């Protein structure tokens, strides 16, 4: 969430945002940071486009790729399930057990700091700054309820029931991951000898819930239907399945034609690219897409990180760096979108020139990269170092 990932009991992960440790070739996954950044960039692109429209600024044409932010989050879920499960399998192999306490400490020190920074900043912005500036936004929901739900990682419930604003809304995916982690580590430890069965049950249950909710079989309100729709544990289940196969059946997995045959690899890659560039949202498509999408995402993760015959290579320094700070890019980008929008509304004449779109997008990405870099080196890394010292007591 070093485009490579070191999987040991000391690894810190977040939705595919790891803090890597000294290299050990046997346990490194090259290229994943590149995927991480590309997915985060799709989220940023979607929010830039949407915010332009909301603020009355000129927009690009409604190209499908500009609406694939939610799909990018689903990719993060697959990647998260893959990395977390591989970590647990490696820990079980190395130590013959899984330390649940250490697992949760890793999550706390990796995920919580930025999550709560954004929550506090969002609450202050929408509850204090926006009213003081007489902007047209109302936080007409119970503030006590909001604080309780955000503190207990139920942001996906809060954001489904109420209009909270973009800065707070992005936290829904972090909440979903925390909810998954809450039960996945204990179940993985309890059913370590039945992992394929566990993965299948979790995935099928989530897929069934997704399908039934799509048809509103439960007769829920729109808010509750949206909340159930956020529980995309099936994507994490598919990621976990690919992790188990790579860990236990690596030779068999990589000999499959989709990994060993270049023509089939190009077809898989082409299908993914076509989906992002051309697929327009539809009821039937959204109902049927989770399984093929999850399989293609799993294929891409394995291809980039573990397949010596892969046609996809993303191991380079720029992507490596951008992937390292991708958690910050995801969490901090909305204020940068707001700031850039404010700038172009103030100097509206700039929207008339041919450089408007390149300047707008470039300004957002430069701002968020600077902020995410500062956060990575001066907030996340110091906290992680302290967390590692504490965690070693329970490893």
Task: Explain what the structure shows.
The chain is mostly helical. The chain has one domain (25-114, 170-391). Helices cover 71% and strands 0% of the residues. The chain has 18 helices and no strands. The relative contact order is 0.16. Residues 1-26 have low confidence and may be disordered.
Count the beta strands. 0
* Sheet with the most strands, sense and barrel status: none
Question: How many domains is the backbone divided into?
Answer: 1
Number of helices: 18
Derived structural class: mainly alpha
Question: Key terms for this structure?
Answer:
disordered N terminus; mainly alpha; 71% helix; 18 helices
Short note summarizing the structure:
With 395 residues, the chain is an all-alpha fold. The protein contains 18 helices and no strands.
């Amino acid at each position: 969430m070093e485009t490579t990932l070191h999987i040991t009991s000391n690894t810190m992960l977040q939705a595919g945002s790891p803090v890597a440790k000294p290299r050990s070739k046997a346990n490194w996954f090259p290229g994943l940071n590149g995927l991480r950044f590309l997915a985060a960039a799709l989220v940023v692109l979607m929010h830039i486009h949407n915010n332009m429209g909301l603020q009355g600024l000129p927009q690009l044409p409604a190209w499908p790729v500009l609406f694939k932010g939610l799909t990018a989050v689903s990719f993060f879920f697959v990647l998260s399930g893959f990395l977390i499960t591989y970590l647990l399998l490696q820990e079980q192999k190395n130590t013959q057990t899984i330390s649940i306490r250490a697992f949760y400490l890793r999550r706390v020190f990796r995920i919580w700091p930025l999550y709560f920074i954004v929550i506090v900043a969002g609450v202050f912005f929408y509850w204090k700054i926006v009213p003081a500036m007489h902007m047209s936004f109302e936080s007409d929901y119970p503030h006590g309820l909001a604080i309780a739900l955000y503190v207990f990682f139920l942001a996906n419930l809060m954001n489904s029931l109420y209009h909270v604003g973009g800065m707070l809304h992005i936290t829904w995916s972090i909440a979903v991951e925390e909810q998954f982690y809450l039960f996945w580590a204990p179940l993985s430890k309890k059913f370590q000898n039945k992992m394929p069965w566990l993965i299948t049950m979790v995935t099928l249950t989530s897929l069934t819930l997704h399908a039934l909710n799509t048809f509103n079989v439960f007769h829920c309100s729109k808010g509750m239907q949206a909340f159930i729709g956020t529980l995309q544990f099936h994507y994490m289940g598919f990621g976990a399945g690919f992790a188990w196969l790579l860990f236990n059946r690596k030779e068999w997995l990589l000999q499959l034609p989709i990994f060993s045959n270049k023509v089939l690899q190009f077809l898989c890659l082409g299908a993914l690219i076509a989906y992002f560039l051309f697929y327009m949202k539809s009821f039937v498509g959204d109902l049927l897409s989770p399984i093929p999408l999850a399989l293609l995402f799993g294929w891409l993760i394995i291809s980039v990180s573990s397949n010596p015959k892969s046609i996809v290579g993303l191991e380079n320094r720029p992507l490596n760096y951008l992937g390292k700070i991708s958690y910050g890019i995801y969490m901090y980008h909305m204020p940068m979108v707001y700031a850039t929008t404010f700038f172009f509304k103030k100097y509206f004449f700039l929207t008339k020139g041919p450089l408007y779109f390149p300047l707008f997008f470039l300004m957002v990405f430069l701002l968020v990269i600077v902020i995410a870099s500062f956060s990575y080196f001066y907030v996340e890394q110091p906290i992680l170092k302290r967390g590692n010292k504490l965690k070693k007591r329970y490893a």
